[in-house]
Specification:
mainly alpha, 13 helices, Inositol_oxygenase, two-stranded antiparallel ribbon, Inositol oxygenase, disordered N terminus, oxidoreductase, inositol oxygenase activity, 385 residues, cytoplasm, single chain
Amino acid sequence: MNNGKVDKAEHPPKYQNLDSCKLLEKIDEDIQRLNRLKVKLEETARRGGNGAGGNEAGGKGTVKEEEEKVVMDHYKRKPPTVKEATNQEPEEAGQETTPVDITVDDVDTDDEPDWRDNSHSILMKGVDPAQFRRYELAYDRVKDFYREQHSKQTVAYNIQARINFKTKVRDRMHVWDALVKLNKLLDESDPDTELSQIDHALQTAEAIRRDHKPRWFQCVGLIHDLGKLLYFYDSQGQWDVVGDTFPVGCRFSKKIIYHDYFKGNPDSKNPLYNTKYGIYSRHCGLDNVMLSWGHDEYMYNLAREQSTLPPEGLYMIRYHSFYPWHREGAYKYLMKPEDAEMLKVVQTFNPYDLYSKSEVRYRVEELKPYYLDLIDEFFPSVVEF
């Protein structure tokens, strides 16, 4: 598959001549595409029954055509650029159009005020950023967590974790039920809150909702940490589920919290992994970089396969814990141009994740109807975890 088009049989193997930093990502994309296709076809079968939209006579098309449509739809999900959005062909031959000066600010992607603008955020009024992420005052449990995480997040472990992720379905349930299950977890890496995960999910989502952000943005706020369910299934502790994320396979940046703990990581002594670029290349793009395995990558893959969240929402989920990058400015030499644009998207989301943490607790049952409706807008009734 290349740019949404089906490769012909005579084309050379798709993995041929790929360098090592792109091979794993290519295999990952192909497996995820097959999983998405499976979910889409199963959902279509459930909705259509025996007579609607199948590949029988009078249906919408053959199975092959339906499969190609599903794949093509996925590749079309990327929002159009300003040029694409404005350079439309005239409806009729010979029809003239009036040139219009258009800037990025003139294009309203959601038919709402620009959701990237946090300048009027209710949340940010009165917030003192210096009171958050104060690791020098953190409990011992936080320091012990990062000591273990930094010593065990190796390239070898990360490759194995991704293989394990793709080999089985751990559970099937509604997203709300998953949030309730997650409520049993106390994140040992978080110095800012002792509240439950569902409290944090609602605090984040309600802060986004209060600022009148789009519904998909609110949904991301609600489920951004849902990948922590991994703790109840395949984890080896909390060190491979929660905490800040960082690239493996290259030198560990000094901007990563508790950097000294990497002395216990064997990769820090491996000449293949301890240089600036390691197994990567300059500006190879973050999608070609392996970040430490945890709830971000896990939930990103689930949402990419089984939700209709836009690319910006998926990016928020995947990189919201990558603080060395979006907060400290590290690893810019691995970014490609698209990452620079999406960095702003993650930075738009981050204040809601971080600064919404407080002692305020919402009445879960009162908010439940609203968020059930929101979840159903973007996720199927049963999600495979």
